[in-house]
Amino acid sequence: MTEPFPRSQGRLQCGDLWAAELAERFGTPLYVYDIRRIEDRVAAFHEAFASIDHLLAYSVKANGNLSILRRLNALGCGADITSEGELYRVMQAGIPTDRVLFAGVGKTEQEIGAALDAGIYAFNVESAAELERIDDVATRSGKKAPFGVRVNPDVFAKTPHEYTRTGTAATKFGVPWDETLDLYAWAGDRPHLVPLGIDVHIGSQILDPDPYARALDRVLELVAAVKSLGVSLEYLDIGGGYGIPYGDEPGMDIGALAQMIVPRVRDVGLRLILEPGRSIVGDAGLLLTRVQFVKRSGDKTFVIVDGGMSELIRPSHYGGFHQIESVNDPVSAPEEGVDVVGPICESGDFLARDRTMPVPEPGELLAVRTVGAYGFAMASNYNGRLRPAEAMVDGSEVTLIRERETLSDLIRGET
Fold it and tell me: Annotated catalytic, 77?
C-alpha cells in the first residue's frame, strides 16, 4: 500500500514530488492529496469485503472535492450524502444516483424532492416525522420513495470526542429501537413508500471492530422482525466511522471488521453497504503552512503559522491531534514545548498545544498530517480569510483541483 507522504533524503514528498516545490508553486496554506493512497484505501475495502455483494457509499461530508469524487466513481464507489448540495456535487462528479444514499436528521421538502427527481438509491430515515414528510412529497410528485430506517441501537462505541458518538439514545441520530418496527408497518400501507433496507451508524473514528458486531447483532433482530411483517429488505447499511491513525495508535483493522460483519450479513442474504469517508481520504491529505513568527511570552513559545482554525478546525473543535513536522530536513534545533497557532483573532485558534518539537525558524515550511477528511470540508472565511487551494498528486503529476479563493470571492452574492 502506498505510504502517504514519505521522506527521501530527509525531505517530505507528496507522491514523487517535493512538498516544498508544491508550496512554492501554489502558495500556502495549501491542501495536498495523494490520489494513489486514496485508491489503495478503496482497494483495501473492496478486497476485505469481496466475498459479499457490497457498495462503498463514500461519505461526501469528509471531503467533497469534485476531482476526488470523480476518481472514486471510477473505482465503483457510490455516495453517502447529507444535503442537496452534496447531491449536486456527486451528480456533477458523475456518480450514478442509484449508488447514492441520503442521510441526515433534517431533510427539507426541497431536498427530498430533489433526491426523488434524481432517482437516488434510498433515503436513510432518522425519524417518524421525516418518513411522513418523504411520503407527502412522494405522493404529491407521484414518485416512489425507497428508504431504510436508521436504527439507533443504543450501543456505546468509544470515540475520541463526545461529538463523534452517534449510536446511543442520548444523540439526535436514528429512530429509537422500540419505534422502528412500527415505522415499517406504517409504511406498508403507503403506496409511495418502498421499504428497501435498514441502517445503523454508531459514531466516527472508532478503532475497535467489536461495537460494529454488537450493533449489527441488534439490528439483525429487527431484520427478522421486519421480515415477519411481510417486508422483504434488500440492503443492510452498517454506516462508517472506521478509525485511522492520527498519531501512534493503530487504525481500524478492516480485515478484522470484515471477518465479523460478512458472515452475519451473508446469512440473511442482504446487500452490505458501508459508508467510509475518513478511512478513505484521511491520511491521504496534507496541509502545508509557513511559519510567520516565533513569539515567546513568559513560559510560552508560540509558533505562528499562516494556517489556523479557518483552514483546519479539528484541533479547536474536537481536540483533534495532527502530527506536525518540518517539510525540509530539520536542522538540529532544540526541542521545546510550543503552541502552533494561526493568525485568527481567537484564543482557540491553534493546530497544536504544548507540542514538543524542534522550534522552527520564521519562513520554515511545516506539514500537518492526516487532514484529508474534515479539513478543507470544514474550512471557513472567518476573519475574512481566503479558503486555501487544493492540489492532487498522482505520482509525478500534480493538478490544482481547487483554486485559492480571491478577495472578490469573499463578497460574491452580497449587496
Answer: no
